[in-house]
Specification:
Elements lengths: L2 E4 L2 E8 L4 E5 L10 H7 L4 E5 L18 H14 L5 E6 L1 H12 L4 E7 L8 H17 L2 H8 L6 H6 L1 H11 L4 H12 L9 H5 L5 E6 L3 H13 L3 E6 L6 H4 L1 H16 L19
Parallel strand pairs: 3-4, 3-5, 5-6, 6-7, 7-8
Antiparallel strand pairs: 1-2, 2-4
Length: about 290
């Protein structure tokens, strides 16, 4: 089981395949195993890297809340690329991993061939409700066993489309969530999810982002719809794909569509066909009717 000492913490990672580096960052309720449909699809053409954040076994689980933050996760990703001697990579993230990917692209654009930001932005709208939800989640993690917590959390409204479409896949997701650390999950929720900047607060930084960026959401992932549209409007190198009748866990819920979207994006980036908006003058163009 490969591990690396990253910023004082033992981090688990896996590398599969050869080719241009393609790095996957997981969501709060997932881990490196959550990317299996993507590793199966892309490892024949890419060097696929998955990793578990600090707080997610078999990575080390620091008990100190000060060992967790959005910036720390970004630095962990940078250090992991250094450890693997990867100068530049395509970076992909879902949910919390989407936020890690976005902030990594903002902090280290020179390390990014491209960025896929999927299902990101929870907590940017209806902030009071989000803060109440975080408090409830932390309470559950403190008072219930992880299997009990997983049984509750996996039924969140944005995850029920996954259950309806693929009960066996959803059950595996719930079982893997039950194996997580309550301490690591609570620390991650309090110090990363709750304290990271909202998408709307990043407007100035987003407008200057030059990394080719694909934004992907499910149309039933309500907390992420407005942030996704905002990112699409502000990032000049971005595109937006919306998966119909889909919730939050889109890489598992709709793996074929998710993989197709990424494959199309990577192909366009690799061939130099991904555009930056505003590079073609439209002053003489007639408006549409």
């Amino acid at each position: 089981m490969p591990t690396a000492q990253i910023n004082g913490v033992s981090i688990h990672y896996e590398v599969t395949g050869t080719g241009p580096p393609l790095v996957f960052s997981h969501e709060f309720a997932g881990d490196s195993r959550s990317w299996k449909p993507q590793i199966d699809a892309f490892s024949s053409d890419y060097q696929c890297v998955t990793w578990n954040y600090r707080g997610f076994p078999p990575s080390e689980v620091p008990e100190d809340r000060g060992s967790y933050s959005q910036d720390i996760l970004v630095e962990d990703l940078r250090a992991l690329l250094d450890h693997l001697e990867i100068e530049r990579a395509h970076v992909v993230g879902l949910s919390m991993g989407g936020s890690v990917t976005l902030h990594f692209a903002l902090a280290y654009p020179e390390r990014c061939l491209s960025a896929v930001v999927a299902g990101a932005g929870t907590g940017s709208v209806d902030r009071p409700q989000f803060e109440a939800d975080v408090a409830r989640i932390v309470e559950l993690l403190s008072t219930r066993t992880m299997p009990e917590f997983a049984e509750i959390y996996a039924y969140a409204p944005t995850r029920t489309p996954f259950l309806e479409k693929d009960p066996r896949g959803w059950e595996l997701f719930r079982e893997q969530l039950a194996e997580h650390s309550a301490v690591g999950s609570a620390n991650m929720m309090q110090e990363v999810q709750l304290k990271r900047p909202t998408i709307f607060s990043l407007e100035e930084q987003l407008t200057s982002l030059t990394v080719p960026t694909m934004i992907i959401i499910g149309d039933e992932d309500e907390p992420c719809v407005e942030p996704a549209i905002f990112m699409r409007r502000k990032i000049p190198t971005s595109g937006l794909i919306v998966l119909p009748q889909s919730g939050h866990t889109i890489n598992l819920e709709e793996p074929a569509m998710f993989n197709q979207a990424i494959e199309m994006f990577l192909t366009m980036v690799n061939e130099g066909r991904w555009r930056t908006r505003g590079t073609v003058s439209t002053s003489m163009m007639p408006s549409g009717e």
